[in-house]
Amino acid sequence: MAADKLPLISVRNLQKSFGVTKVLRGVNFTVSAGQIHALLGGNGAGKSTMIRIITGGIRKDDGEISLSSQRDTEPKIAVVHQELALLADLSVAENIAIVHAASARSFVHARKQAEIGYKALSLIDPHLANTALHRRAADLSMHEGQIVEIARALSTGADVIMLDEPTANLTAGETERLFAVLRRLVTETNIGIVFVSHRMKEIRQLCDVCTIIRDGMTVIDAAPLESLTDVEIVHHMGQPDARNEIPARRKIDHADVGLVLKGPECAVPVLKGQILGLAGAPAGPSQVIALLNGTARSSTWVLEAEGWPERPMSPRQAVELGIGYVSGDRRSKGVLAQLPIIDNVLASRRVREGRVFVRRSERAECLDLVQALKLKAGSILDLPSTLSGGNQQKLLIARWLGMSLRLVVFEEPTRGVDIGTKRDIYELIRRMADAGTIVIWWSTENVELLELCDEILAFDTDGQAKGLLQSSQFNEDALADLTGMAA
Ligand SMILES: Nc1ncnc2c1ncn2[C@@H]1O[C@H](COP(=O)(O)OP(=O)(O)OP(=O)(O)O)[C@@H](O)[C@H]1O
Ligand SMILES: [Mg+2]
């Protein structure tokens, strides 16, 4: 169908430098009507930069961009950026309606705002539509915020919707619902959708064609996804083969209990050197995590461990007890935005060791960590804001790597990290466990838990612990059943 293939966005030979770093060196990108287009590439390849140029956030140095609409109006593009962008002091309804107002060049009345907001949110989350319209954006959890942003983008009636890693903050169930809505939008309204993700399974599930960018250049231009295998895609991205097995597990001593997690329904003993996965929607796992990182003011969960209190009273006490914590919210809780990369990487080492002065050997120490994680940075003296999303995530992990900890808590540590580097992070986590550290790891990506954990504690969507799976019982469907979410 010729009409289906109308190009809505056409980018030719796009170029962009930041200072001396050439980030885009010749990107071609064509988005057609009626297609879901996967935009792929490793961390730092230039995906978000291109999206920001197309949507007018930053200026290009060179190249052509043309936009067209299937209607007799100005072409309109809606975007969900990689880092959340809601106005903190406005309500959810206001945040959604503001986009509509800008397009109509008119003030939107409060009642109308609520109507627009309700309609938009109902598309993907009827519960949120009924409960969240009048809440302040600042009070939303990260994943609620993500849903609001997506709903906003979907409801603007744009010709193209660009979603830069929209599923990174969503649970499997929410992702599935989002995909159903995107599919329906494309079929019913023939718009174009651009989807950025590092999760191969999702990409295959949702997308029709893909463009692969590598080091700022297009290496695959709108090829049908069926024409490429996973191995070929990873190869085009310039990443090591993702099929490499994670090295076998060191044997765990079953008498060596490191701590016991006591919840309302159960007590879970965790062995030294064990990797315990937390699966399911945020409600349950976030309570356990808050207990361990010292942010729970009161909690239904307590811990029992030699020399430790029932509950660390503050994040500082948690660090002093030897508990490491990688926050899933890198922007507001993790990255120290005003400090250079080196200070971000070495932060917890300095706190643990009470270092005040910068040691000369720190530079080498930081460079080793940067290399181990393939953290792509211009210089370790640059600010974190110069890093791509996935590389900012690596900053948080680097902070705890190789430290001797009794316990480390990971909250979605591979969020936004590219396929090749995910394998590296899995190996590094495994190595920490092999050295005797207890690892507690929450992920909404069930497959990665199944691959790496020794045991998985599954929570349902109401936050109730539903079962503890041993590795011999690991199975995608069983975990999906227990968590009430898609596998
Ligand atoms: N303001 C800036 N100053 C300097 N360098 C920048 C700036 N913004 C981006 N970069 C660099 O541009 C490159 C591309 O970044 P971009 O965010 O487009 O990557 P990406 O493909 O979206 O990666 P990810 O998958 O990690 O999100 C990165 O190496 C990044 O460090
Ligand atoms: Mg990006």
Automatic annotation (TrEMBL):
Keywords: ATP-binding, Membrane, Nucleotide-binding, Repeat, Sugar transport, Transport. InterPro entries: AAA+_ATPase, ABC_carbohydrate_import_ATPase, ABC_transporter-like_ATP-bd, ABC_transporter-like_CS, P-loop_NTPase. It comes from the Bacteria. It holds the Pfam family ABC_tran. Belongs to the ABC transporter superfamily. Signal peptide: none annotated. Residues 9-240, 242-486 form the ABC transporter domain. GO terms for molecular function: ATP binding; ATP hydrolysis activity. The keyword Repeat applies. This is ABC transporter ATP-binding protein.
